[in-house]
Amino acid sequence: MPLLSPLNPPVPHWSGQRVWILGASSGIGAETARLLARNGARLALSGRREEALAALGRELTAATGAEARALPCDITDAQAVADGARTLLEAWGGIDLVLMAAGIYDALRPQEFNPADLATVRRTLDTNLLGAYHVLAAVLPEFRRQGRGRLAFVSSVAGYNGLPRALAYAPGKAALNNLCEGLYLELRPLGIAVTRICPGFVDTPLIATGDFPKPALQTPQAAARAIVRGLERGDFEIRFPKPFTSLLKVLQWLPRRLYFFLLRQAIRP
Known about the structure:
Blueprint: E1 18-22, H1 27-38, E2 42-46, H2 50-64, E3 68-70, H3 78-92, E4 97-100, H4 118-146, E5 149-154, H5 169-187, E6 192-199, H6 220-233, E7 237-240, H7 242-253, H8 256-267
Parallel strand pairs: 1-2, 1-4, 2-3, 4-5, 5-6, 6-7
């Protein structure tokens, strides 16, 4: 593979592409579903909120004529994810793209951390990290059989560096970023594309209650456009907005003494 060629095969069109979105009931997942429906994709919409998924499916079918089936499942339940994959394979005969957009955030700080917070840590990691493994267990055997397929995971720039108020969220996203790199190295030779998506701040229910600055806040619609364009180009990493996320990338390379100093200045009241 030439050094400067796309890391994944580009997506030439979305018409007829079979796309399973987990975390589709709101935010980035829902807006990406809307955009893909307008481009002719066949959609399965998963999440825990059955009524919201059904309403979104009706909306997309009425507006675009696209197939948009609601497929409720909890990403923390490995059997439910496996059952969802089996349902889709029986209906579609295969899956072209799985987009894991499910995620939760709770502000945890070591200053107040106590044994009761362990339940929040487990819930966060079960959703944001172990959920990815549930997806892999459910779809990788089929992707290997097909000899192709795309896996896309919504991670976060919070996984680039250690951050305050994110005692469970940021480590989980760091692990997910690492996981995507390992998956890419081993799955790309098998014809399976892997993409990690690292947004900055997006105006979704996930961060609505967060008591912290939210620079370069993006709309979910802008996030969906960036994701779809990145998949079409064959990107391994999709990050947005570029100026803000580029700054955080640079911070990865700094000596920790300088990084800690700059971050303290940035978050000082």
